[in-house]
Amino acid sequence: MSPPQVLDNALGAVGKTPLIRLDKIAKDQDLKCNLLGKVEFFSAGGSVKDRIAKAMVEAAERDGKLIPGKSVVIEPTSGNTGIGLAMACAIKGYATIITLPNKMSLEKEALLRALGAEVIRTPTEAAWDSPTSHIGVAQRLQREIPYGIILDQYSNVNNPLAHELTTGPEIIEAVVATPASPEHPSSGKVDVLVAGAGTGGTITGIARAIKKTHNKDCIVVGVDPKGSVLAKGPDCDEVSPEDNTPYTVEGIGYDFIPEVLNFQDIDQWMKTDDAESFAAVQLVMRNEGLLVGGSSGSALSGALRWLKSDAGRETANTEGANVVVLLADGIRNYMSKPWFLQIAMEAPPSALAGKIAGILNTK
Ligand code: PMP
């Protein structure tokens, strides 16, 4: 462990997140493999996207594309990239405009405004290439606003690169540095990675780091919500491209294929729905004490379903195999969402409830 140091600013607290065993869930699901969560809400801005915001801003600064006091950073996002950018821009002195589809939570808008960003809401149902979509509106503003710049997470190489250089290596180092023990057998390598895809930068970058430098045979499983078109390829038998039913989970899935998503790095896809995602969030909270967001539930439910499928059963039954699930953000972003209030407040009563009622009602 390196000794603690004074950081220059909050950007020094981006990333370097823990990899945490999800042992109770693994045991309940009869898994012999290790189930490990890469828990990204520990990052300064609260999500995996802080890393790319920092990387894109720093790269643009190196290229002389940003002028403090003048540049206006404009970005279409599902919120988390915006929060990372607004944090970086607050620190560095750039104005920020975030375009955000209506479905994204009030909490994200409030955080963006708290960080000093302007927020423009756009219709969720607008197709990506419509002038009224979050992408279309950002482009229109950029054309009109002097010194307006879109760093563009959908095509910016620093998006996947940030994960190839930080998220991936952190996962590899944690697995390699943790010795196998009789209590916790370990193959010493990352055998499976499961992550949701929005821009696809996270899964593409981590997959590259693992396959290039650590374990070329690592199986990379992408998770895509029903209603999105990202899942495709010979191994995906669950694709229904014409299905554009709305879904509630935020941050994953799209109606177009972003440039940074590299299908070659993804071995298999799992389609998920809202109900299983939110049930998995409740499972992680109640069993592992981790306050994750909705897309983390999607990633976990996709992982558990994959481990029970023909493709994943061997891994599930292999002692010491390491299955890493990317948990992209925290519940802070969703506290007022009905789905969260439902899993929190309408959870089945604990064994204590009857006893408490008995005591209080007899007084
Ligand atoms: N989960 C959440 C909550 C997100 O905000 C995002 C980013 N859109 C993702 C997952 C997916 O990350 P990526 O864009 O790198 O695919």
TrEMBL record:
InterPro entries reported for this sequence: Cys_Synth/Cystath_Beta-Synth, P-phosphate_BS, TrpB-like_PALP, TrpB-like_PALP_sf
Recorded metabolic or biological pathway in which this protein acts: Amino-acid biosynthesis; L-cysteine biosynthesis; L-cysteine from L-homocysteine and L-serine: step 1/2
Catalyzed reactions per annotation: L-homocysteine + L-serine = L,L-cystathionine + H2O
KW ATP-binding (keyword) present: no
GO MF terms held by the record: cystathionine beta-synthase activity
CDD domains the UniProt entry points to: CBS_like (cd01561)
Domain Tryptophan synthase beta chain-like PALP: 12-328
E.C. code: 4.2.1.22
Biological process according to GO: cysteine biosynthetic process from serine
Pfam families cross-referenced by the UniProt entry: PALP
Entry-linked Gene3D superfamilies: 3.40.50.1100
Top-rank lineage group of the source organism: Eukaryota
UniProt KW keywords: Pyridoxal phosphate
Family: Belongs to the cysteine synthase/cystathionine beta-synthase family.
Protein name: cystathionine beta-synthase
Organism of derivation: Ephemerocybe angulata
